[in-house]
Specification:
- This protein is an alpha+beta fold.
- The chain folds into two domains: 120 residues, no CATH class; 30 residues.
- It contains four helices and six strands; from the N terminus they run ααααββββββ.
- The strands form three sheets. Strands 1-2 form a two-stranded antiparallel sheet. Strands 3-4 form a two-stranded antiparallel sheet.
- Strand 5 and strand 6 form a beta hairpin.
- The longest helix has 39 residues.
- The two termini are 47 Å apart.
- 15% of the residues are buried.
Length: 165
């Protein structure tokens, strides 16, 4: 699963927990005051304070994650790759779309794409690999392919080195 989807799900769970702290804190405060338990009403007050300050922050953070999810969906499923196309589809200014694309790359929410002039493109570059060398074994004459500086002939066990340049 894409990291952007995982991040959005985690932020949703966090915002939901903070939201549920409101009624929980109210109940703990009321019951604690009713039965005279200072520890219970102290926990209730702590829950209410965390919910009061954290709930808006959690939902705003979740909303920004959803904006990133929508952008990734437009790129991967709708195949929109230029900033102007993405801005038109999402109804956002081009500057904001550029900033969101930068964030997608910085947080590695989108992998397998590269930035081009005014958009993104599929990264079709091949990963660099170690060069392979082929030599004939000096003892038995077998053709041996290897990477690195040396190997051992699989037929006779003779050590074979890469040719010096």
């Amino acid at each position: 699963m894409q990291p952007v989807y995982t991040s959005a799900k985690k932020m949703f769970a966090f915002a939901m927990i903070l939201t549920l702290l409101f009624p929980l804190g109210g109940v703990l405060l009321g019951v604690g005051l009713g039965i005279g338990q200072p520890a219970m009403w102290a926990i209730g007050i702590a829950c209410l304070v965390c919910a009061f300050y954290g709930c808006p922050i959690g939902w705003v953070a979740y909303g920004s994650r959803r904006a990133y999810v929508r952008l990734v969906t437009a790129i991967e499923e709708e195949h929109l790759y230029s900033v102007s196309e993405l801005a038109a589809q999402l109804g956002l200014p081009e500057k904001e779309v550029r900033n969101q694309i930068d964030t997608l790359f910085k947080k590695r929410y989108i992998v397998g794409y590269i930035r081009t002039g005014d958009g993104i493109a599929l990264n079709e570059n091949a990963a660099l690999q170690e060069r392979k060398y082929t030599r004939n074994c000096p003892a038995c004459g077998a053709k041996v392919t290897f990477t690195g500086t040396e190997t051992v002939c699989p037929y006779c066990g003779t050590r074979i080195e890469r040719e010096k340049k």
